[in-house]
C-alpha cells in the first residue's frame, strides 16, 4: 500500500513523525538505559500460574477492578429506583460487557426463574396465548447488535456543564448483541386483529413497568430477547426475558417482560405522560419522541481518562450512534468547533448500534477544547447545544444529543465545560 496522505494522518506517517521527533515513550525508555522489566526474568515467569479450573466463570483480573458501573448518590432518593453508568471511558471497541452495562430500575432488579416466567399475549388478537420459556426458545431466533440509551442520558447537561466525566454525562448507554425472537413472530401466532394499532408492553417487576408501542414498530425490528453477548441476560438486564426496541429510548425496552396487549390506541400510562416527555421552552411537553437522534462523545481524553504521556502522538477515541440508522461520519474539533477534521471510523457502521471512532494527532501540549460531531445515514448532523436550546429551552431532561466539550489543560487533565 502506498502512503500518499499527509504525514501523521496514517499509521505509518503517524509513527514515523513521532519517531523523528523523539516523542515515543519507548524511545525515551531506551535512552535511560536497559529496562529490567524486559531485560531480566520476572517473578511471573519463574513459577506456575493458575490452572484452567481456577475460575469456572472467568472474571476480569483484579488489576481492572476500577472498571465498574458507578451511580451518583444525589441523583435519586434511593438506588431501588435509580440508574448507574457504564464506564465508557475505560472501554474500547463497541461491545459492552454485560457486567459493565448500565442499569435502570423502577422497583429494583428482581429474581425470576425460567420455569416461573410466562408471557401473555392478549387484547385485540384472534387467539390469546401464554408462552413458557421452553415455548419461546422453540421459535426461530435472530442475533442483532443494538445500543440501548436512556432518554435521560446527558439530561443533567441541559442547563450547563454539570458532571465531570463521560461515564456520568453519557454513560446511560450500552451496546450488546441480543439473541431473541422477533415480536412479529409471536404476534403472528396470536393473530392481530385489523383494528389492532398499538401494543402495550408490561414487565413483571413491582413497578409493572409499561409502555405503548405503535404496531408498525412492533411488527418491524422489536425482539423478545433471552440472551446478550452470547450468554443469558443478567438479572439486572431483565433475566430471563426482556424486550429490545432498536433505536428507541431505553425506557421502552421493558425488562422481565410478562404481558403484551394489543389495542386500538395508546394506553398513556405513567411512563409516557408524567415521565419520558420533553418539556419545551413554553412549558408544554412533547410526547411520543421515541427515537434517539444521532449523538457522539469523546471518551478519551476526558475527565476520567486524562492524557498522561505528555506531548507527542495522541489518540482521541470516542463513540457515535443513531437511533435512525448507521453512522456515516464523525468530525472532531480541537478548538471548540472553530475547525473540524474527519475522524477515522473503525469498521463498518451497523444500524442502530454504537460505532467507534479515532483521531490521531501530535499534541503539542497546548490547551484543547475537544468536541465530536456525528452524521448519520439519513444525513442528520448532531446539533450544538445552542441549536437544541433554541427549540427546546433548558427545562427538559430527555433527548439531549448536543455536542459536548472537554477542556484539556496543558497538564493533560480534562474538565467538562460549555462554550458560550
UniProtKB/TrEMBL annotation:
Pfam families documented for this protein: Mo-co_dimer (PF03404), Oxidored_molyb (PF00174)
Alphabetically, the GO molecular function entries are:
heme binding; molybdenum ion binding; molybdopterin cofactor binding; sulfite oxidase activity
> Where does the Moybdenum cofactor oxidoreductase dimerisation domain start and stop, copy by copy?
287-405
Task: List GO BP terms, alphabetically.
Answer: sulfur compound metabolic process
Q: Which cofactor does it need?
A: Mo-molybdopterin
The UniProt keyword set, sorted, is: Metal-binding, Molybdenum, Oxidoreductase, Signal
Q: Does the keyword Signal apply?
A: yes
Signal peptide boundaries = 1-31
Could you tell me which residue ranges the Oxidoreductase molybdopterin-binding domain spans?
A: 113-268
Q: Does the keyword Mitochondrion apply?
A: no
Q: Which Gene3D superfamilies match?
A: 2.60.40.650, Oxidoreductase, molybdopterin-binding domain
| NCBIfam families registered for this protein in UniProt | sulfite_DH_soxC, TAT_signal_seq
UniProt name for this protein: Sulfur dehydrogenase subunit SoxC
